[in-house]
Write the structure tokens for this entry.
Amino acid sequence: MTENITALVVDDDRDIADLYTTWLTMDHDVRTAYSGDEALKRVDEEVDVVFLDRQMPDRSGDEVLERIRERRLGCRVVMVTAVDPDFDILGMDFDDYLTKPVTRADLADVIEQLDEREEYSQTVQELFSLTAKKATLEAEKSPSELEDTEKYQELKERVDELKAEADPTATSLEDDYESLFLELPRGQPRDEKSN
């Protein structure tokens, strides 16, 4: 179980930010930011995980994510948002994606999963991150939409390459992770519509 992590909660909705902060403070050190600009001031080398809203008026979560990566802070970033994921997430360098509403258990589960990833090589960590994107899109998009999208096909190929390179134990964990991801309330697999 993860102990003594420092989390940064970023959301322009103060009620949501304060709720997540209250939940996380029970087990972790937490900082709170109510805007993208404030987030960039509050994030530093001591922050382990950022829970980042995508839609904010002054500076979007997408832009905050880019700035965090440019600064090479090494923290994990979890997008926590009401924005339904689209194919644009394939170009974003986040570690996980939660669609609102989320529960305290969702936040705790993500922290635990991110902590477990730390024990593995960069190859396996990339595999986990890409699997999160793949599972997110598969929960949101129809099979025909996925099949017709070149970037998604490239993502699948990269996941397969990483699976081939990765330790068999890690690949087994990745399969478990993908199954768990699809079971969480962040998105259920979309049923095929019968013709």
